[in-house]
Amino acid sequence: MPSQIFPPISGYGTGYFKSSTIASNSPGYITAHNRASPNDDGAFVFESCTIKPVTPSVISGNSNIAYASTSSAYSLRNSYLGRPWSQYARVIYMHCDIWKHIAPARWSIWSPGNPQTSNVIFWEYQNSGQGDTDTIASFAKVITNSATINPYTLSKLFGDISWIDTA
C-alpha cells in the first residue's frame, strides 16, 4: 500500500484519516486545526488509526502514513494529539490505537499567553493503546456516547460519499 505524507496536519478545512498510521517522528503536535468561528465547517477526524512514534526520517512502511514532523528531537511522552490554531479548533480521534509517546495530558494549548482552549472540540472516543486518559487536559473530553460522535463519521461530514474510494 502506498504512503501518504502530510507534513504537518494543520490549517483550516476538513481532513478525514481512516485506518491510517499517523507517525510522529519527534516531540510536538500531531495536529493544529484552525476554524474561525463556531459556525464554520471543518475538523480533523482520525478513525481507526494507529498513532505511533517512529525515529526521525522514517516516512515509509506498509500502510498509509501521515507524517507529523515537528522538530529534530525525538522522545517518549512528549508528543500531543493536537493544539488549537484558533479558539474553535475541532479534532476528534475515534477507535484509534494511541501509543505511549503521547504526553499524559494528550492535548496542548496554543501558547501560555494565548491558550485558545475555551471553545475547542478536542474529543476522544473508544480509543485504546498504551496511553491513558486519566490525566487528559481539562479542555478536552473523552466521549462515551456514540450519538455525540455520530456527526463526525465519514458519511455525516461529507454526505454523499460515493466519490470517495473506500476500498
Automatic annotation (TrEMBL):
- Enzyme Commission no: 3.1.1.11
Which pathway does the record list? Glycan metabolism; pectin degradation; 2-dehydro-3-deoxy-D-gluconate from pectin: step 1/5
Query: Which GO-annotated molecular functions does the record name?
Result: lyase activity; pectinesterase activity
User: Matching InterPro entries, A to Z?
Assistant: Pectin_lyas_fold, Pectin_lyase_fold/virulence, Pectinesterase_cat
User: Which GO BP annotation is one of this protein's?
Assistant: cell wall modification
Q: Which SUPFAM superfamilies match?
A: Pectin lyase-like (SSF51126)
**Where do the Pectinesterase catalytic domain residues begin and end?**
26-157
Q: Which residues cross the membrane?
A: none
Q: Could you list this entry's UniProt keywords, alphabetically sorted.
A: Aspartyl esterase, Hydrolase, Lyase
Family from the record: Belongs to the pectinesterase family.
Name listed for the protein in its UniProt record:
pectinesterase
